Amino acid sequence: MTIESIKKREYPSSNKKSNIDIPKGKWLKCPKCKEIIYRPTFVKSLNICPYCNYYFRITCKDRLKLIIDDGTFKEFKLNIETTNPLELSEYEAKLKKEKEKTGLDEATLSGIGKINDNKVVIAIIDSNFFMGSMGSVLGEYVTFSIEESIKRKLPLIIISASGGARMQEGIISLMQMAKTTCAIAKHNEEGLLYISVLTDPTYGGVTASFASLGDIIIAEPGAMIGFAGPNVIKQTIGEELPPGFQTSEFQLKHGFIDLIVKRKEMKETITKLIELHKGSGIIDKKN
Amino acid sequence: MTKKISSWDIVNIARGPYRKTSLDYIDNLFEDFIELHGDRLGYDDKAIVCGIGKYNGIPVTIIAEQKGRTTQENIERNFGMPNPESYRKAIRLMRQAEKFNRPIITFIDTKGAYPGLHAEEHGQGEAIAKSMLTLANIKVPVINIVIGEGSSGGALAIGVANKILMLEYAIYSIISPEGFASIIWKDSSKKEKAANKMKLTSKDLLNLNVIDTIIKEEKEDSDDNFMKVIARIKKELDLSLEELMKLSPKELCYHRYEKFRKIGTYKKEKVN
Questions:
Q1: CA separation for the pair B140, B138 (Å, rounded)
Q2: Burial level of A260, CB count in 10 A (0-12/13-18/19+)?
Q3: pTM for the complete prediction?
Q4: What is the pLDDT along chain A (287 residues), one digit of tens a residue?
Q5: Does residue B267 belong to any structural domain of this protein?
Q6: In the beta sheet, which residues pair with residue A197?
Q7: Would you report the helix, strand and coil content of chain B in percent, each value rounded to 5?
Q8: Count of A–B CB contacts within 8 Å?
């Protein structure tokens, strides 16, 4: 339910109507303010609308470039794929489509890299692939990343963007919440730093497991973050939701995130936070 | 009953209006049960019942999702759908169980965590995550019994256990069959087809190694038959407690870690 309601995200502040189809290439249209954006400007502004400041969802590869020092990333390659535990033909077909659409094998990119010369384990979830939903494979990559961070005594950064657990794998997906959480529990015992970054959208089983368990939780401005999807809540309570419900700003106000950080300042902020955790004797720059 | 019982039939049994609830099991399994209230943060949510009782003379902490047995009780207990404050009360009592070295026994019976405005404002996701995190590292044995409906993160929040027992006609799933059908086939009326696909029965879950033991149930509801089920639960609880109480705190955490670490089904991709 969650995934569906997020896909159908509404943009209430759009008062401008534009039915012009923009050919792929030099120009694109902001889904929020409907302004036409010149692509080179857009890329320069890190995929943020220059008119209304709307944060476009970005791919895990683009996200990696924004955070990790050039040429320092070494990807974890586990060579695993799902067995389709519920034997749903719809699932196989959808997976194939998602792979073709994105050129990815799964909704994640994880590995070891450096952030301003600080070695870290990083796992990024990509909402462009299957709405970043967590099945066996994604759960395994996240758990593996946490375990590598323990093994190598490195800070852990997880950047989430997910509709929640992947329904197509049923109970096995649900159990990935427990699996990743047990790994975070072990990580905690080791006294290691875990920074959780929430981006648009972070929902369901991802919010209700590792994404909410960072020592420091950061969100991008305007990201939608919650447990139940807005449409499910609307149906349940039979009322309209208040403006700004489940945004990063809402989560900050209610005390569930530490800070909101702009896309262009994310790398520097993470660097500062890592630096501030040095001296505990665990993180060594030369690692 | 001559017809083979389908997964959808089991969904209906698990949701049945007269199906026994957590308090019925608590009354028959434990002596001197005392309910303890409140999260110490300003609320007492009634969808989860917590307390201390004695099992075979040993004090244990009990954490149980509770559906109402009457309309009035259902309203009080929010139809067994916890708000974050229920999980925070549970976390408080998990820590207390650890302090006094009491095993924890949890009962799952919920349609899911409540999807409401208040729940989101008070961090439903964070509360579920913290409840699982607390159980993951707790230094006492944790046994979970799925007695009715176990749906989504709202159920799993108290399900991170060393042993998971499940009643034969209970269900445990990522979402309701109605929700599953509306996501996969955009048609919630295909709930029966969904139930039969979802692998949500005790037998399915034993095959998937998600649960450890099935507690056999009787086909007919009666007091005598309920006591037979209680006796079977006791037998399994005895075995589980005996095994788990031999483990050191460190071994208990490791045991739980290994149990969930293994869950996932994937094959190695073909190497070209």
A1: 6
A2: middle
A3: 0.94
A4: 455 556 555 554 444 555 555 556 789 999 899 999 999 988 899 999 999 999 999 999 999 999 999 999 999 999 999 889 999 999 999 999 999 999 999 999 999 999 999 999 999 999 999 999 999 999 999 999 999 999 999 999 999 999 999 999 999 999 999 999 999 999 999 999 999 999 999 999 999 999 999 999 999 999 999 999 999 999 988 989 999 999 999 999 999 999 999 999 999 999 999 999 997 655 554 44
A5: no
A6: A159, A218
A7: 45, 20, 35
A8: 197
- Report yes or no: B256 at the A interface, CB cutoff 8 Å: yes
For tokens 């019925």, the residue is: B24
Contact A184 B266 (CB under 8 A): no
Q: What are phi and psi for residue B198, nearest 5 degrees?
A: -75, -10
H helices of chain B, in order, are 7-14, 22-29, 71-76, 84-99, 117-121, 124-136, 152-156, 177-184, 191-197, 202-207, 223-244, 249-261
Q: Is A227 within 8 Å of B124 when comparing Cβ atoms? A: yes
Per-domain residue ranges for chain A?
A: 58-276
Distance (Å, whole) CA A165 – CA A1: 11
In a domain, B98, yes or no: yes
Q: Does B162 touch chain A (CB under 8 A)?
A: no
pLDDT tens-place string over residues B178-223: 999 999 999 999 999 999 999 999 999 999 999 999 999 998 889 9
By the CB < 8 Å criterion, does B271 face chain A?
A: yes
Task: Report the chain B residue with the minimal C-alpha distance to residue A139.
Answer: B264
Alpha-carbon distance A253 to nearest alpha carbon in chain B (angstroms): 9
- Bridge partners, residue B106, by sequence: B63, B144
- Nearest by CB to B129, from A213, A229, A237: name it: A213
**Cα-Cα-Cα-Cα dihedral sign, residues A245, A138, B178, B77:** negative
Place of tokens 């005996």: B242
CATH number of the domain residue B21 falls in: 3.90.226.10
Query: Are B200 and A171 within 8 A, CB to CB?
Result: yes
B223 in A contact zone (CB under 8 Å):
no
- For domain A58-276, give the CATH superfamily: 2-enoyl-CoA Hydratase; Chain A, domain 1 (3.90.226.10)
Query: Which residues on chain B are in Cβ contact (under 8 Å) with A224?
Result: none
Cα distance between residue A95 and residue B199, in whole Å: 20
- Contact yes or no for B78/B110 (Cβ under 8 A): no
Which residues of chain A from 87 to 126 reach within 8 Å of chain B, CB to CB? 87-88, 90, 105
ipTM for the whole predicted complex goes beyond 0.85: yes
> Any CB–CB contact under 8 A between A140 and chain B?
yes
Q: Whole-angstrom Cα distance, residue A267 to residue A30?
A: 25
Beta bridge partners of A121: A112, A156
Residues in chain B with CB shorter than 8 Å from the CB of A4 are 182-183
B241 inside domain: yes
